[in-house]
Design goal:
InterPro entries: BON_dom, CBS_dom, CBS_dom_sf, Diverse_CBS-Domain, UCP036990_CBS_BON. With 213 residues, the protein is an alpha+beta fold. It has 9 helices and 7 strands; from the N terminus they run H-H-E-E-H-H-H-H-E-E-H-H-E-E-H-E. It has a 3-stranded mixed β-sheet with strand order 5-6-7, with helices on one face. Strands 1-2 form a two-stranded antiparallel ribbon. A two-stranded antiparallel ribbon has the order 3-4.
Length: 213
């Protein structure tokens, strides 16, 4: 199988965290000083209990709660406006990711939840890191040479056992072009599918035929 990079490989492991009893003033100061959009709230055992975002702080300062439904209910929304500590200000339960998720899986979750980052937790709910949109984007920014080597060595060589030099691989800005011969036509969609599963690949253009056809 091809190696698909995971959240655990791209996430930030050193994470600024808050405690439930962290004061509102300290929360605001920490987010501002570290120039971050949100921070996980963990208990004494390191278990994730919620997330405080910069928008939570702004709503508190302006006295305007989130639209109905965004924070669960009106009581919770107005509670955030009056919050004095992180546990009253935070969103809970928090949307999370797992270290073994693939990059596309995490990207879909970010999009689905309309958030910019996700705390990463283990099976016990303990915080192990945080993954952001920029972390995921960086995973897809790979050089054409890296992609070409993975197609040649992993897809064509290791997985399919196609002789070196039988298929020429050209990669330009993530677009893969394949030219050459394959033993059986049925291998063409297999090769295309495997190439499309490589991180950083945009399109695959196969020009593959049987020998002497």
């Amino acid at each position: 199988m091809l190696h698909r990079r995971t959240v655990g490989e791209v996430m930030t492991e050193e994470v600024l965290t808050l405690r439930p009893d962290t004061s509102f003033q300290e929360v605001a100061a920490l987010l501002d000083a570290n120039d971050i959009a949100s921070a996980p709230v963990v208990d004494a055992d390191g278990a994730l209990v919620g997330v405080v975002s910069a928008s939570d702080v702004l709503r508190h300062e302006t006295g305007m709660p989130a639209p109905q439904g965004t924070d669960g209910n009106d009581e919770r929304a107005w509670g955030k406006v009056r919050a004095r500590t992180a546990d009253a200000l935070m969103s809970s339960p928090a949307f999370t990711a797992r270290a073994d998720w693939t990059i596309p899986q995490a990207a879909r979750e970010l999009r689905k939840r309309h958030v910019k980052q996700l705390p990463v937790v283990d099976d016990d709910g303990l915080l192990t890191g945080i993954v952001s949109r920029s972390d995921l984007l960086d995973a897809f920014i790979r050089s054409d040479d890296e992609i070409r080597r993975e197609v040649e060595q992993d897809v064509l060589g290791r997985i399919l056992g196609i002789d070196e030099g039988t298929v020429a691989v050209e990669v330009r800005d993530g677009a893969v072009a394949l030219r050459g011969h394959v033993p059986e036509p049925r291998l063409v969609p297999v090769i295309v599918g495997l190439c499309q599963g490589i991180d950083g690949v945009g399109t695959v253009d196969p020009h593959l035929t049987r020998p002497n056809s």
